Amino acid sequence: MSQTQDEIREQVRQRYAAAAQGATGCCGGGAVPVELTTDRTGTQVFGRSLYGEEVAGAEDAVAASLGCGVPTAVADLHPGEVVLDLGSGAGGDVLISARRVSPGGRVIGLDMTEEMLELARRNAAAAGVDNVEFVQGYLEDVPLPDDSVDVVISNCAINLAADKSVVLREAARVLRPGGRFAVSDVVADAGMDAATRADMEAWTGCIAGALTESDFRSALSDAGFVDVEISPTHRVHEHAAAAIVRARLPQG
């Protein structure tokens, strides 16, 4: 792919800014356009339909989800923990996490898109959740200090970054020793063709930029993570699947 990191960021930003504005609707809620949540056959592979019923208090935010899974279902969150959501979008996973780490815990949502941040803040206010914070920034340059969070989650956002290895090193940097990494993301088939890899629409749609399972494992290991688990959940494209990816930092 010939685009620079800044060009990729801008095209991703434009797509998700438009999605945020489309999800806002006339009353502050509403689902995202169906073409952003289905595969080429029309099957729902992203978004609200993946969450089941565990969305109490976060209905509007989850309705605007563009995620490929439910990282909160496997992150094993506990009261008092500090959680960072990379690419937090409309805030659905932030709000679900906030209830699970209460009392005493808090959740930080990081997103580069102003429109998504505004939508997430409205969703948090409507839900009456006050142990959350939404900050603007890039996944490759997380505006948090070293060793400041217990858990990093993400829902189909890491694949959108131009340099996934930098994102994973940043996740390791902000995690405390023993900290956990639990994300939903798209994992590319090893045989993904060059035309798909070069398709910018497929990149912003969470496909072309995805790592293979082997590359994801290597990047996590290089960042300092151990006990890496990658478990596919469902197909999202003829050349890619959604997966739960878990790992942790060593203690001490």
Can I get a quick summary?
The chain has 252 residues and is α/β, with parallel strands linked by helices. It has helices spanning 5-24, 59-63, 92-101, 114-127, 164-174, 194-197, 200-204, 213-223; strands at 82-86, 106-111, 132-136, 149-155, 175-188, 211-212, 226-237, 240-248. The N and C termini lie far apart (39 Å).
Task: Please characterize this protein's 3D structure.
- This protein is α/β, with parallel strands linked by helices and 252 residues long.
- The chain has one domain (5-248): Rossmann fold (3-Layer(aba) Sandwich).
- 32% of the residues lie in helices and 24% in strands.
- Strands 1, 2, 3, 4, 5, 6, 7 and 8 form an eight-stranded mixed sheet that branches.
- Helix 1 runs parallel beside helix 4 (114-127) and helix 5 (164-174) crosses helix 8.
Q: What is the rounded Rg?
A: 17 Å
> What's the number of extended β-strand segments?
8
Residue fraction in strands: 15-25%
CATH architecture classification name? 3-Layer(aba) Sandwich
The number of helical elements comes to 8
SS-derived structural category: alpha/beta
Mean pLDDT: 83
Assigned CATH class:
Alpha Beta
Summarize the helix and strand pattern as letters.
HHEHEHEEHEHHEHEE
Total separate domains: 1
Largest sheet: 8 strands, mixed
Stretches with pLDDT under 50, minimum 5 residues: 24-36
User: What oligomeric state do these chains adopt?
Assistant: single chain
Helical fraction: 25-40%
What is the CATH T-level topology? Answer: Rossmann fold
Q: Give me the CATH superfamily.
A: Vaccinia Virus protein VP39
